Amino acid sequence: MSAACIFCKIIKGDIPSFKLFESDKVFAFLDIQPLSKGHALVIPKYHGAKLTDIPDDHLSELLPVAKKIAQAVGATDFNILQNNGRIAHQVVDHVHFHMIPKPNETEGLGIHWPTQETDMDKLKALFEEIKAKM
Ligand code: AMP
Ligand code: ZN
Fold first, then answer.
1. CATH architecture of 6-132
2. What are 15-63's pLDDT values in tens digits?
3. 122 alpha carbon to ligand 2 midpoint, in Å?
4. Which residue, 75, 111, 122, 129, is most buried by CB atoms nearer than 10 A?
5. Long-range Cβ pairs for the range 22-30 (8 Å, 24+)
6. Ligand 1 site: residues with CB under 6 angstroms?
């Protein structure tokens, strides 16, 4: 728990939310500025800013809950989004997974997807480098 964190305050009940789900390790609620109808956030109760700050056993339940909400909303097309860092569009520094229904072209998440040229030699070198650290 972080005293200054808005999502920790939501978990504690100090700030109200439209709570969809709660368990020992997970909390889920409707996003207050939705990109589409049913936009929800699924968060670990463990406070940490980035995905890499959260222990594995606090991560395992998050996607099943996001899936449950997507089904409850009746979303057939949707995005699961988890931003890390300001430049990656993170505003709230408590890890959260967005479940954003994509009902049509204009509502929901819009994605800029700037693909880069593929150099297979460089890709293979990168692959070897990453694999060696896993
Ligand atoms: P991000 O840009 O990934 O950090 O997203 C933060 C999200 O938190 C935004 O979609 C906000 O609308 C949402 N948000 C911020 N404050 C609240 C709140 N009090 N209740 C519900 N959602 C919130
Ligand atoms: Zn927090």
1. 2-Layer Sandwich (3.30)
2. 999 999 999 999 999 999 999 999 999 999 999 999 999 999 999 999 9
3. 39
4. 75
5. 23/61, 23/65, 25/57, 25/58, 25/61, 26/61, 26/62, 26/65, 28/65, 28/66, 28/69
6. 6, 15, 17, 31-33, 41, 83, 89-92
